[in-house]
Amino acid sequence: MQQRPALTEIDINRDLLRPILATPMWFYGLLMFLGIFVAAALGAFAWAINHGTGVYGLNRPVMWGFLLVNFVFWVGISHAGVMLSAILRLCNAEWRRPATRAAEVLTVFALGTAALHPLFHLGRPWRIYWSMPPGYDFGRGIWPDIRSPFVWDPTAISTYLTSTALFVGLLLLPDIAVLRDRSSGMMQRVYSTLSLGWRGNTRQWKLQVIAGFLLSALILPVFVSVHSIVSWDFAVQIAVEGWNATIFAPYFVIGAVHSGVAGVISILALLRWMFKWENYIRDDHFDALARLMIVVAVGWFYFFIIEYMMGFYPNEEPELSLRILQLTQWPFNAAFILFALTSFFIPVPLWLFRKVRRNVALMFWTTILVNIGMWLERFLIIIPSLMRKQVLTFNWGSYNPSPIELILVGGSFAMVFTGVLTFAKFFPIIPLSDAKEGEVMKAEIRVGKVMVPAAYREE
Amino acid sequence: MHNGGPHGHHVDLLERTSAEVNKEVLSWTTRTSSRYWLLVLALAAVTVLGVIGFVMKAGDGGLDSHLPWGYLAAGMAFVLTTSLSAPLIAIAPRLAKAHWTRPISRIAELWSVAGLLVLVIMIPLLVTLPSAADRNTMWFYNKIAEGWPPGAPYLYIALTLIFLVINGFGLLWASAIPDFAAARENATGWRKSWYTRLSLGWVGTKRQWRALRAGLGVLGAFYFMFLVFAHTVVSFDFAQSLVPGQRDSIFPTWQALGGIQSALATVIVTSFIVRLAGGFKDYINVNQFWSMAKIMLASSLLWMYFWWSGFIILWYGKTPLQQNLLQLMWFGPYRTIFIMTIILSFALPLLFLMWNGVRKSILGPTIVAVFILAGAFLDKIRIYVSSYSIVDVNAHALDYVPAGVTPEAADIMMLMGVVSGAILLFTLALKFVPIINMWEVREGMLLQEIRPLQKLPLKVLAKPE
Description:
Oligomer: heterodimer
Largest interface: A-B, 41 and 42 residues
CATH class of chain A: Mainly Alpha
Order of helices and strands of chain B: EEHHHHHHHHHHHHHHHHHEE
Strand content of chain A: under 5%
Number of strands of chain B: 4
Structural class of chain A: mainly alpha
Strand content of chain B: under 5%
């Protein structure tokens, strides 16, 4: 953490509130551009509702396609929020400060978008009512099967979404109060209401810090449970080759952290470029995040190797044929090579070099590569397994995504990015209070002739 | 230095000069009391008892079958998960530039000497391990081509463990070079000649320091990878692949994670003893125990999560094979041991360590560490003894649940001998290698200060690039 320009509170307020108080014109242009994709996705969904799920490329035996691949992908991305914010907060890591809010916001929008995918997939979204508590038909003695991961799934995701939104809202309070004092008219009334009377007195800060730590600790089990449960959607099924693996839960969780932290790095690079926040999202932050990525990636790779080896270990024909399909047949062989290169073999060796870790453009593109790879990983888990579903299945088919599915998948990326940008228009995406605290806690220690960067540590 | 910190806590920094650190640590290393020799004698006696137990077992059960050796395999796995995993507690925080690990890093690294014991135990276990032909192993022996890979699994298990032990010794040596040099300046007789040889002409030039740091990084990273691989290999070859039809992909990763949990427990208990016996209360204080307790709580929670993730898949599947596996591993003859493991490795650590007051103490984490070590010991017995109880390891699936194997006198003697042998090696080594990493402690003194922030005295930690 060598290059740390001194920033006053005035500098911090001016720089970090600029996107809100003096929004540049290109910002609206970008939002409109993304809006086209969002509108296209909504149109595609309307088309699917009108024409039925026949417009998707699903067919026996592959009844889960791109939409569920994308669902798992976005749930995975959403793991970055807690990973960075809660864990690093609990660990008192100084370098977390500029990244936490972006990570939390990415969680909220990625998870919200993920939650839409089962609705897209169903094609009859109103039927979700029957899987929610008000729709349970207790009168006729029909109870939901609480042993089913399909009941655990909405419970976990809605709990995670609620708690993350609460987490974001709580930690936003001091920043909203700053905005309240700098805005006028209707926006001032809105910020006044949202700031919940925040004045920044000692008691409020104390409560906020305690609540932040408590929520950080409480949200962690939820974070782990969400992707574990998503993994059990697959892993508890003994009839589908490649899915019934005991490692799936932690493998999914660490994979989610891998793609989620990569997503946060990509977003931070974009924010730095768009808003010229070089003094806030510094090279040393990318360096620290890249080091974290190396650890996560290597851990994930170990799980991947074990999971894959276990496919061959029993030496049983159905599973072997699935693995051969994944590795040797078009288009899965190409997808597999691309997946291995982009998720691990290209980025991780590059991150070993300090120059790469401190190069924002390279970090942006390598993390984009990671997420291409992680999307393909979910594709390779879901689709080939369903194609070789059972030994005695009466037809083995393939799967080709329809244009409607492609539009929905593309639209989902636009939805998440639109959500993050819209948030950045109304709230500081780098926490003002954290940035100011970071300046206060900053110090240096002289060792011989050298000044070594340091920080005060509250225990 | 003790100052009133925030929330009534104390902020501790070691107040010593470099010369005082050297003097205190080295004088304890070179001074041997009669109590020390008494301890060495007692440990040696129990270790010899273990050897006698082995001879009894070999004479009784022979070396032709794997069946009698489940308890010895459990003993080896226990040393792997505790002693050989302990260096991780020096490696990982060093890479993360954490200051709290400095006074205890040598304690963690010194446990790698127990690797010698693992290499000795490995020999009879390899001799009695069933051939990989006609059964599933992680080496896929004969699966791709007849006789390939040659020497599987024996050669690869041996190579894995040998490389791990060599790497562990290399790491210990590299990290001790500056301290050997300091010891060289003050020692006489045979010690001086050995310290001179081992310090490799260290005078502390810039180039030497750079090489040392790079070496420690590389050796640490390799040790971490070898250790995870060793956990994978041992848990596969001495447990999972002996149970026909068992296909538990989380099992090796769970064992590796258990290694982190047990490593912390080992280092905490050892630090507690060294702190009291060596008079190092100013060096090893509540900060070390607090930091390790936090990671130990997280690893205990993860340990349970990994176990649950594996269990739920087997329980949910309910195929005859999965039900037999559940019976063999958890709910059949080893049910009591399993319940004890869950209590000791998860429930009690959670109940104790969830309170910051317990975490931020010296006795609290130590008591929990003892629970965890006991839990790990029982867990290894459950896993390895049950796996070694399968007669027909070449069967396609586990179609019956064998009866539990009660330990004989020879088994108990061997287990005691293994644990005692590991402690003996550590005890002998700590009178040659300085038990406190002097150069890291001295460096830590330069990089930490106490300064007031507003009116509060707080610790300031520097982290050089």
